Amino acid sequence: MDFELVKSFLEKSSSGVSSEDIDSMPFRFFEPMIMSGLKVDLIERGRVLCSMKVPPRLLNVGNSLHGGATAALVDVVGSSVIMTMDSVTTTGVSVEINVSYLDAAFVGDEIEIEAKALRVGKAVAVVSVEFRKKKTGKIIAQGRHTKYLAVSSKL
Amino acid sequence: MDFELVKSFLEKSSSGVSSEDIDSMPFRFFEPMIMSGLKVDLIERGRVLCSMKVPPRLLNVGNSLHGGATAALVDVVGSSVIMTMDSVTTTGVSVEINVSYLDAAFVGDEIEIEAKALRVGKAVAVVSVEFRKKKTGKIIAQGRHTKYLAVSSKL
Amino acid sequence: MDFELVKSFLEKSSSGVSSEDIDSMPFRFFEPMIMSGLKVDLIERGRVLCSMKVPPRLLNVGNSLHGGATAALVDVVGSSVIMTMDSVTTTGVSVEINVSYLDAAFVGDEIEIEAKALRVGKAVAVVSVEFRKKKTGKIIAQGRHTKYLAVSSKL
Amino acid sequence: MDFELVKSFLEKSSSGVSSEDIDSMPFRFFEPMIMSGLKVDLIERGRVLCSMKVPPRLLNVGNSLHGGATAALVDVVGSSVIMTMDSVTTTGVSVEINVSYLDAAFVGDEIEIEAKALRVGKAVAVVSVEFRKKKTGKIIAQGRHTKYLAVSSKL
């Protein structure tokens, strides 16, 4: 194995955007970059349903939705569902995130993202997040997100 | 709970970059956006050590490294370590990613990311990825990444 | 901290059964020990629903269903759902198991365990397993189980 | 697929021990059943090293250490390492357990189990647990265990 290949894979910046432009991007650009285009279809206590069209910017080298972007969406959409519970005043800090990848979603595919609160206690919240193809209902990914809510006290 | 708050949290785009600019970003912009600034410090068979300075663009609302960005780095740095094994010709497709978050890393903090191959078989590879503060060695996050390698055949 | 306490916690054998009796237990006693009392309520393609009454032998020191027993049930009930898919001739080998614990189940509580196939491909299968209280529907635990199916070839 | 096969797999009790004998086993028999034979080799602050010889009773149908037993050992050995930190008075309740399975361990194989505290805070503890073959150092399994410690207050 040519270690130079590994190095160039990790230090690449071939995106049509210069690394200077990337390095000067604003504070907290990560969330807008992930979430732009996300639409909320339904909010109820303990459940949020969103949809989005897979955008070109979130593709991986295989031209399907990047697994890292999927994990980031588990984080943010999972956190939002905690806000729907009337007992909470914070979405807390992340303790653990896990995602299983089940199918590929390609550019332009309409996907829906459903987050459900499995438990929202005083200190610990656990939510599930499922990604499906809107047309077929086929599951693309399923994850869980654990958060610690009592952040004013020490984790 | 005001559901409008949840909706505005999910559909926000307040980043100093217009949603038009985000929507017109190039194919596969996600990886450069995550990885710009990543330096490879060491590559050996089954092990990759990188470092980076936490950049403003990857912060969350608490101004620490976004958990979704951490998960995305588990994906890409974890995949790179598979490339260091002489038996493989692909980094495969993701089956599962999980991350535990242990401490916050703030803007400018030097962090190191160490990926180790736990197993690279003919079909399934599992790697661990640990994030530490460079100065103190304190663990920020630890995750695992499972990939399916025999992608020419059907998953 | 008294390290002797830790040692005695790990090397204890106070169960009313002598360690000689435990050590002479038959091959593969683990599964019957976990599964005795499990009833199958429904089997369909991609879905298995079971129920059981939490038995005294599977309790932890807090007198609720042991998390390790729950994880073992994710394994076996999760594997069984793979057998309901007509394309498979094996339940494969475990690649990953994860479980979130959401509520306690006490001795005599009727619980139901629902396993669903999220994906059963030629090589990789992923199932979800959910534990609920039968009376209230409240979720006790939720997990996922990833298996590699093509075990005749090399993992 | 013959659903009767699935049913008999789940409701089987062929272990040389009658289901009556299993059903009359004492309270909390699960832990001694899993842990009998476990030896503590080293305890220090934040780290516990144990060893055991894979016993016949903990085998799966493939005659290797059962994945459910491995997960249960992640739970108990992972919990024990929390007891080595001087700040804690409880090992808390389980929030999440995950395990990746990397290699098979057969009856009589000497294995070592190393648990390390990744973080033990006031409320949340996360530990890693690694299983290795004693002779070769080869990793059999690696997992993480998250616990909530402030159990006197409400989870």
Automatic annotation (TrEMBL), chains A, B, C, D:
<dbReference type="GO" id="GO:0047617">
    <property type="term" value="F:fatty acyl-CoA hydrolase activity"/>
</dbReference>
<dbReference type="Pfam" id="PF03061">
    <property type="entry name" value="4HBT"/>
</dbReference>
<dbReference type="InterPro" id="IPR029069">
    <property type="entry name" value="HotDog_dom_sf"/>
</dbReference>
<dbReference type="InterPro" id="IPR003736">
    <property type="entry name" value="PAAI_dom"/>
</dbReference>
<protein>
    <recommendedName>
        <fullName>Thioesterase domain-containing protein</fullName>
    </recommendedName>
</protein>
<feature type="domain" description="Thioesterase">
    <location>
        <begin position="63"/>
        <end position="138"/>
    </location>
</feature>
<dbReference type="InterPro" id="IPR006683">
    <property type="entry name" value="Thioestr_dom"/>
</dbReference>
<comment type="similarity">
    <text>Belongs to the thioesterase PaaI family.</text>
</comment>
<keyword id="KW-0378">Hydrolase</keyword>
<dbReference type="InterPro" id="IPR039298">
    <property type="entry name" value="ACOT13"/>
</dbReference>
